[in-house]
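Quick note —
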Amino acid sequence: MAKLKAFLLLCIAFCAAASFAASQGPTFENLATYFATNTFLVAGDNAYCTDVLGSAKVAYGLAEGGVTENPEGRTDVILTTTEHETGNLIPVGGPAINPVAVEFDAIFGITYSYNAGVSFEIFCEGESIYLDLTEYPNEDICIVYLGEDNSRYVMLVWGYGWQGTYAGSAFIGDPANWTTYTGNHMLTLRWIDANADGLVQMTEISVEDVL
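Predicted structure written out below.
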């Protein structure tokens, strides 16, 4: 009887832990599962080409992580209603140029403040990351946010400028980082152009906040 009771308590504890984990929503270690099928990388229709360079990094990372179905590329204009409502979406590029990012920022509670020529700051779930605009374009920031909406998955990747967006795309495009941030769904990143070549290297990207 004692062994049966211990077994039942263990089962209850396991189920409670599983339920708690599920209640936390999607987390980075499972990206290959979330975006295995029916996935769309979405750029703003008016985005500069530099704003969407990171999409290739994300797509490559998904393939490296085990996804066998290549994600489709869309802009906010050519994304169909069905794709928008039922697809797993990865909006790349920020609210200034991507209306889909604006939409899901609102759904997930991501906001920002912009003081022209002075500062840009991103806020999410009690965390924030600040950019002194006098340092741009030698420094940039980014948010990577993974969420669930209407039984499908959405991952936002955007920075102040293209450098931040590319840094976030490169970082989350490395499956090793999915494992490093197991159990997490949000990262804020900072890129600093350490070698002053104007390009984004992985060694120049640092994580500031994790949720």
